[in-house]
Write a structure and sequence with these properties.
The mean pLDDT is about 90. It contains six helices and five strands. With about 160 residues, it is α/β, with parallel strands linked by helices.
């Protein structure tokens, strides 16, 4: 049985994240979406909010679970018996960063393999920080995030979607 971990901040979950998850469920027996908590990051949504929305979004997949992690991802992987770290990449900058991170993770735990999945081309420009900024001005994020995430964003910012 192959268990993969897909770690990220998911603040907020985007259509690009979901694209990676939908493709991963066909490749691995189990996919554990892991909401990583980084004490150096400021999040818009709490870990509990991100977990709840992700559980709702991936509920249709029988082989996907969602968890919150506050440890090194390689330690989490070992604790749940996973040896695959799944990383989505949009471009060469993502690849460079993720490649370096994969080397460090492998140094920390030699049984960990990192698998890169390039996102579908239509999601290449999706970036959580840009989506949050756009939503803060009431901009249309409907093609970037699932509908329930768009609603959460606008509620968080006290905005309503701007009519175009």
């Amino acid at each position: 049985m192959t268990k993969a971990i897909f770690p990220g901040s998911f603040d907020p979950p985007t259509n690009g994240h979901l694209n990676i998850i939908e493709r991963a469920v066909r490749l691995f027996d189990n996919v554990d979406v892991v909401i990583a908590q980084n004490i150096n990051k400021k999040y818009l949504f709490s870990a509990e909010e991100r977990k709840a929305v992700l559980e709702s979004l991936v509920g249709k997949f029988k082989n996907v679970s969602v968890h919150v992690c506050q440890t090194l991802i390689v330690d989490y992987a070992k604790s749940v018996g996973a040896n695959i770290l799944l990383r989505g990449i949009r471009n060469s900058l993502d690849f460079s960063y993720e490649f370096d991170l994969s080397l460090m993770n492998r140094e920390l735990n030699s049984s960990i393999e990192t698998v890169f999945i390039p996102t579908d081309q239509r999601f290449i420009t999706l970036k959580s920080s840009a989506i949050k900024e756009l939503a803060s001005f009431g901009g249309d994020v409907s093609g970037m995030v699932p509908e329930q995430v768009a609603k959460m964003l606008f509620e968080k910012f006290g905005k309503s979607k701007r009519d175009s």
